[in-house]
Specification:
This protein has 235 residues and is an alpha/beta fold. It is built from 10 helices and 10 strands.
Length: 235
């Protein structure tokens, strides 16, 4: 049984259909990446999984249990943690207050969870009293991921974690994703940097205009001519 199953979902914004029968799965222990151009349906797929928007048909299962009929706060409580595009941290709160809010589904922060976050992101421990909005973009991205980890996720959804970061920080973020996965957390990664994403992914999917058009291992997709031309900038 897959940890996360997305089965033939059709998602709409009003009368506009954004997803047209998307199916994918994430197994325990995997990093799975979803790549595609802007507007292809990547973020909508994550929003559908996390309950921010409800598919009109199809279903989504977490450990075999249907979650696509549940509101976002219930989905979060069941173990789906979503680090959104644009970070969406609470700018006027401290780093520690942001992390505390990540643990709200468990009532109060757990010291072991906090220590795990600080082991992955030592910078956050150094700046735990700092107002989050005054940190650099890279530090804010670390905080967004750390906040999601405080929820003790069964699966972690990451939406464009490298967006807007300096190249050296991009490498750091991707290494941290690998480290998180090594701790046993499955990851579904949406990322414009297809080269970096496929290099760390066990498997990947390519989405175009709301449909999955290609799937395979990260290595296979890196070697695919269509992927290389469309997403890796090669002729």
């Amino acid at each position: 049984m897959a940890m996360l199953e997305v089965n033939d979902i059709h998602t709409f914004y009003g009368n506009i259909q954004a997803l047209k029968g998307v199916s994918l799965n994430v197994e325990q222990g995997e990093i799975v990446t979803l790549i595609g151009s802007n507007g292809a349906g990547k973020t909508t797929t994550l929003h559908s999984i996390s309950g921010l928007i409800r598919p009109r048909s199809g279903n989504i299962k977490l450990s075999g249990q249907v979650i696509s009929d549940k509101p976002a706060h219930v989905v979060a409580g069941m173990g789906v943690a979503h680090s959104p595009e644009g970070r969406r941290i609470f700018n006027r709160m401290t780093v520690m207050e942001n992390l505390d809010l990540g643990a709200y589904t468990h009532g109060k922060p757990d010291q072991a969870d906090l220590e795990r976050v600080f082991s992955l992101f030592p910078r956050l421990e150094e700046r735990k009293g700092q107002i989050a909005g005054t940190m650099s973009g890279g530090e804010q991205q670390m905080l967004a991921i750390g906040r999601a980890l405080m929820a003790r996720p069964s699966v972690l959804l990451l939406d464009e974690p490298s967006l807007g970061l300096a190249p050296i920080l991009v490498d750091t973020i991707f290494q941290i994703i690998v480290d998180i996965n090594a701790q046993g957390i499955p990851v579904l990664l949406v990322e414009q940097n297809a080269l970096k994403a496929l290099a760390i992914a066990h498997r990947g999917y390519v989405i175009q205009t709301g449909k999955i058009v290609l799937a395979g291992t990260g290595r296979d997709l890196l070697g695919n001519d269509m992927v290389r031309k469309a997403y890796l900038g090669e002729d």
